[in-house]
Amino acid sequence: MTKVNETGAGKTGAAISEFLKRPLVIALVLIVVLLFAGNALSPGFASGQQILRLLIVAALLGIVAAGQNVVILGGREGIDLSVGGVVSLSAIVGGNVMNGADIGIVPAVLACLAVGGFFGLLNGLGVTLLRIPPLVMTLGMLGVLQGLLIVVRQGIPSGQAAPGLSSFVTQPFLFGLPGIIWLWVLIGVLMALMLTRTVFGHRIYAIGSNEHAAYMAGVPVKLMRVSVFVISGMFAAVAGLCLLGYSGSSFANVGEQYMLPSIIAVVFGGTSLAGGKGGYTGTMAGAVLLVILQSILTTVNIADSGRQMVFGATLLLLMLLYGRGRAMRA
Amino acid sequence: MAKLSLSGVSKAYGATLALRRGDLDIEAGEVHVLLGSNGSGKSTLCKIVAGSVRPDKGEVLIDGRPVTISGPQAARALGIGIFYQELSLSEHRSVAENICLADLPGKSGIFVDRAALEARASRYIALFAGVAGEGFSAEALVGNLRADQRQLVEIMKALSSEAPVIIFDEPTSALDRAQVDRFFEILRQLKTEGRGIIFISHRMDEITAIGDRATVIRDGETIRTLKLSETDPAEMIRLMVGENSDLPSAEHELPAAGPSAGAPLLSVRNLSGKGFRNVSFDVLPGEILGFGGLHGQGQSAVLRALFGASSISGGSLELSGRSLAVANPRSAIRSGLAYVSGDRGRDGVIQGRPIVENAAPIHYLKERLLLARPSALRDKVLPALGALHTKFASLAHPIGSLSGGNQQKIVIARWLIERPEVLLLDDPTKGIDLAAKADLFNLIRQLAAEGMAILLYSSEDAELLGNANRILVFNGGAVTRELTGADRTRYNLYQAAYEAA
Amino acid sequence: MAETGSAKAPTPGGFKRLIERYPFLPALGILIILLALNGIFSPNSLSYRSLTGLVSTYLALIMLAIAQTYVIFAGDIDLSAGAVVSLVNVVIIVLMEKMGGGGLAVFAALGVGVLAGLVCGLINGIVVAGLRLQAIVATFATSIFFTGFALWVMPVAGTPAPALFWRTYGSKLLGLPFVFYIVAALAILLFVISRTRLALQLLSVGDDAQAAYQTGLPVTPIRIKGYLLCGLFSALAAFCVTGDTASGDPLVGGKMTLFSVAAVVLGGSALAGGWGTVVGSLLGALTIGLINSLVFFIGTPSEWQNFVQGLAILVVLMAGILVGRRARA
């Protein structure tokens, strides 16, 4: 161990710089910066109403990102590209089961969880039993889901959200915040507990860091891997149902825009795409960050082309702050 | 003037100081051995010379001129070649391609000159003609080769650099006697050509056979350089270990307690599988059964098969009289087996996670826990770590903050929280330092005294001879001899190991 | 020494040996089966004219699959490939329109198109290999950027390509369709590339980047060159798209990216890098084309077509991976 005598100030300085480098802190700082920037560019951006709207959208993204986070933590290049499809499908299924009636909410939730779980199970089985790389498996599943959506749309109406669901998502529930935000907070707490205080959570990290060692230590690797995909599917389904509540009825391929952002939110939260490292609180901040960024770009009056270019460039810039790979030369 | 000279080189990884002050002088025409326990810094020193690690401080001189080694390419240009302990081969490329990879012979700048490539590679392949074994050829894919053959390819690759200074970091760990002899012939030839060779090995007999001078590194600092002709193994070990402690379990000391009489705890009959056939033996409670023989003759294969990590094609197992079928490690653990691997990077350590998560998995499984409460875990984990005298700052620190030997201790500790009935040790001390080895074997003997049945495979004869009640010698996947009582001598061990299968 | 049965070296069995030497064999097998099925359901589809049409339509995907292959060799991936196709497509259309649509305009546009593809490849290479950002997310980000640029060049789809361009693409030269010449030239180009040092180095880096670095290979420049190759072939793919659709569309490349990855996997190359062939990816792209046409020929109702196509591709992907795995095991 080094025997350098660090002065008190030196130690504090080092500790502060370590703290500032944590992804969560970076995300929070950026959120504040962006809120100020947005307000400067377009006064009223950071108003209470606006922030509330941003938080709702962030919650929707955050729920999808929760499932994505678990899959990515599980390692072995885990990723779920089918979440967009599950979100869309779940919105239609939920809408049809509910059909605008409050008593339909519980059956709708169950139906959506079943749908999400089902496709997650297929993904998980493909990845573990057939050893198809997750990128390829979930990509293929996305294609299947998109095709399925076309069929379903021809056959059934888009369904109607129950008033209870809509108000859960859009109307204030507690302390002025809609129920969905509290749901998100609850999910955040449960995820944190799950990852740090349960055997299941520790096992996810284990298979993400060194699958073979986990296997030799008796961790049921295959079961775990299937589970993370089922979890991802179910979270995406919940998000789809909430999305239905947000917009009243489902339309087009509404879930597609959640796929890439869910991955980015996870990366911004400090989780490594290689697995085994990271947590959900960072992802929550990442989701908020991303939503604010997208919102700023929509507010500023530039053409679609400019918006995309700025968005792409900003993403790259932010990635520089977060996740650069290891240098070859140590 | 020294061919290669390092002075004051240091390297820290975050808070861990891997190398505090490294000094080294290599003359032309000598084989210079680097001695030191794991974590002493000698691998770091070599990687700095090879360019894959950047030093924090220090000077490197080649032929008296100070140089800056900015990367592996620069090292090569400066005339330094290296054999990497973990190997630096491309699995899906052929032997010839791997040998010439660093400097592919070209045609008109961008094309590969296949003919020249094959010609150049065959020069180095020819050096090991006759000892490389079946299936070795210039076109064979490296991924299809055995471990010893892969090491040969890495050696050939290092030789093909034709560098005036070549570093060999544990080049003989998987090689058989004939291959080692041929390799040493080549080294002697290189000496006469005036090359400087740095040689790292844990095997004393190899060091004394080929080395001219030796430098001892301990705790990141160069201690002393000796001429091998003027010293003996005991002094070298003393310098490496640092205190005047006696060697753990001196070679000829027989284990104190013996097995209790009675019914065997583990019974194996005609077991066959990948790498072994028709193996039968019993293990009594309190007995330490050793597996001996040359490396790779089926010892590891049997242990892994017993643990369910590889499949069994025939035979039967009985644990405490009940028939046992292990489909995978999970069921083996539930049945009361435990397995400690020598390859901790692959089989043991969960990198990047805290110490406590590395110590807890078996506990989770056996107690069928769902929640992981830190305080309850601490109560379970600390005693197990204490039994091995493991030094660590805090249970929440990542396991990577510990040295290799201490990491292995954590991995072993995970099996001790709940006592298994049978402990399978598959070269558990590979790559850990002497002090840690001593602690481990003390613990193993204690566990045996408490009634555990222990199977021990070690690639070091001294460990087997000093700890096993009986030794089964493996050759070609079958047990050729059993050594008990006074028969447990090094001579008998070697003789049985070399007997025709 | 390694674990061996009786000190015998593990020589690969016949099947495995075959796949090692010709990793694209499973893909070829699947392709032949699909051709047969296509022929059963619609004998016309195997006619000279139909096959020419198939190649003509899917030549772009073939090029893009090849582009993706070089990057995947090195263990990376390029999820912006489709966006690059869109970008080059609109750039050359706009250029040709501005320059009058004659022969000179076409050649100049092609030159600029190649340049544009290389620049995109360079950007990707710098971002992934130079700045060490994770390839999946980073190339997603660049794809957004490139799409934005394409939208800036041509905000609304529909500008037509000059008649010279698409007429040539669909024409016949000495009795053989133009596309056949393109395929022949492509084959020669691929052969030449496979003999270069870069090809071997890309595969080495993909096999084990750390080992390649320790061996002294300049890993970062090699990976960037992989992305440059990808950019080049993406541009070529854009030329084929332009010739086939005869118009500009800033979003044309959208689905192609995912198909290009699927084609590479179908072709037997390892997604993690270090192993594979461009021929396999070529066959993989054709396979996807044949699946799509097969689904059409068996009379699938139009709204079910996407679903069945997606399902069929997934099934074929599984089959391809299973066979490849048995061979690599």
TrEMBL record, chain C:
* Entry's Gene Ontology cellular component terms: plasma membrane
Q: Which residues cross the membrane?
A: 22-41, 53-72, 79-96, 102-123, 135-154, 174-193, 226-246, 252-271, 278-298, 304-324
**UniProt keyword list:** Cell membrane, Membrane, Transmembrane, Transmembrane helix
Molecular function GO labels:
transmembrane transporter activity
Topology in membrane = Multi-pass membrane protein
Determine the domain of life of the protein's source. Bacteria
Check the record and name the InterPro entries matching this protein.
ABC_transp_permease
Q: Where in the cell is it found?
A: Cell membrane
Q: One Pfam annotation, family name?
A: BPD_transp_2
UniProt cross-references to PANTHER family, sorted A to Z: ABC TRANSPORTER PERMEASE PROTEIN YPHD-RELATED-RELATED
What is the protein name given in its UniProt record?
Answer: ABC transporter permease
Specify the species.
Metarhizobium album
